[in-house]
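Q: My collaborator sent me two sequences in one message, no labels, and asked for predicted structures for both. Can we handle them in order? The first one she listed is below.
A: Yes, handling them in the order given. First sequence, followed by its structure tokens:
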Amino acid sequence: MTRVGIVALSSVVPPVEFQIGVEFLRSQGLNVRVHPQVHSQHWLHAGRDEVRAAALMELATDPTIDVIWCARGGYGAAKLLPLLDRLTAEQGVPPPKLLVGYSDVTVIHEYVRNRWRWHTLHAAMPAAVNFSLLPGADWSATLAAVTRDRTIAWPWQNRPLHWVTAPPVEPIEAALIGGNLSLWQTLAGTPYAPPRRPHILFLEDLAEEFYRIDRMMTHLEQSGLLDACAAIVLGDFTDCDDEAQTCLAAGTDETAIKDPAKAPRQPLRPTYSMPDLFAEVFATIGARRLIPIATGLPVGHGPNFAPLPLGARYRLSADGTLALVKWDWQR
């Protein structure tokens, strides 16, 4: 039986939703141990930074735990990185395990992948209200991945992606890394930025306006984090929209500035759609940097929750198919 330890590395954990998620995991045949830290609260987080880092290290070094599953995302995981440096220096590198989670966990995925040589899985977390109601194919693949099944029906493996740039002339084979765009770009300029080795970059996000996505991609490019990028695959950008900007309507006289809220208004500029975002931001960067970019990977904050091994080797073909070549966690 796979032994799972649960920690909370980011925001405060909702107790009812979490308990439902834990019971669901147990009903699926997993041996689940919840670290007491999960129920802590300090400021915006599930306990003080030192408490959260110590809880992760405790489960990381526990020989009775195979998999560490984060309770939820939110905010605060990046604060733990220097503390994990110190704990690693004091206690040594923990033996390889699998870390499961996504969103704010992106920075921890990248940390344990590089510093501890762990396996990582971008997948749903048990404190989510819909965790026990995930689409069947998404949950079946998640459970199979966690329990190291030899055969896993990845929901994305037979769903060709859609190119927003010219497709690659030859298949691209490389490690796939990344996660949440907002978190990935915060690594730029820090000691925890990903090593500049050829890779396929996966990105997704939640509730970001288009100007912020544009700014984050500009930051990634200007910081050099796209220099070794062989391709980019985009997952769900859930509830990401353009802001509708208005201005005083043409013909409005100068008295309107005394009470502009009551004055007639008109659109300042067009309001753009998701295809516009892909064309203007991603396709432009791809063309400039000669990076093939595709959309449609059913991974992210919804409506799709397919699991995705990070750090594993994939092949991305001109017809848009993404195939897992090798994942060392899988038997």
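Q: And the one she listed second?
A: Here it is, processed independently of the first:
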Amino acid sequence: MSMKMNRMLLLSALAAVSLVAADKINGAGASFPAPIYYKWAHDYQAQTGVQVNYQSIGSGGGIKQIEARTVDFGASDEPLEAKRLGESKLLQFPAVVGAICLAYNLPELEGKEVKLSNAVVEAIFLGTITKWNDPKIAADNAGVALPDKAITIAYRSDGSGTTWNFTYWLDKMGKTWHEKVGLGKTVQWPVGIGGKGNEGVTNMIKQTPGSIGYIETAYAAKNNLPMATLQSAEGTWVKATTENIMAAAANAKWKGEEGFYQILASQPGKNTYPIVAATFILLPQEKAAENKEVSKFFTFAFEKGAAEAEKLGYIPLPKPTVEAIEAYLKTNNAK
């Protein structure tokens, strides 16, 4: 076979590899945004033919995989600070905003509202309140026939941005929690049983009468799990409604030069839901071609996926934030 023919075959093979790479994007990380990422991926493939394969493995796994460069993008509900981004040579931007709820399984109540004060939530997760009819819970739930049933805690067993945001809130509002447990993607839970991913914790709650656990609101809504009414930073009772989640998101001050680092939990406002979080995308600085393909997907999501995000209980990013992200990606040769 001639050298010319060999060269032609090699170029053809390389072109085929490039075509395959361009037709598939691999991402991994947070389970918090997985429902909307799956929907966006389905719609994007239908329109462009490009497959977005997203693995819901938890924020800790997503950070590890993008730092190891084994995926095209990582996803984390814990934003990385500028120093960590610089050390790992990563870009970061938010994709969508959501909320973490306390979902529970009490069929006896037949859907009646349960209010849980900050002090009660802290005590439940510390293991010092162990029954649903505890006087401290009953005090805020007049007229609700709380059952004499043991409380079972369901928590995340994997490295989780949902855990990081939930424990950030607990750590900020609970002195005892701060002193004994603290915050992190993983913590030493005083009581309870662990499940992997939002999916695992959701299943544990569904299967365990008397249980309570922290999950993204989209998982609770999809599985018809009731969500506790919580207290705002001002002490008023608030539900995880779109309006109350948006109230927290409205306080965000996104800055591209800081990798859009922002924590939305415990934001002020009497109508502000207390456990709100943005979820973030991580890209390797040096992979310009791959980053541009990932950027196309999220541009599609920002422009055409807002309605689908709202249907699932997420809050799309406001237009000025999207414009700031687009400028940030262009500046960093990722668009």
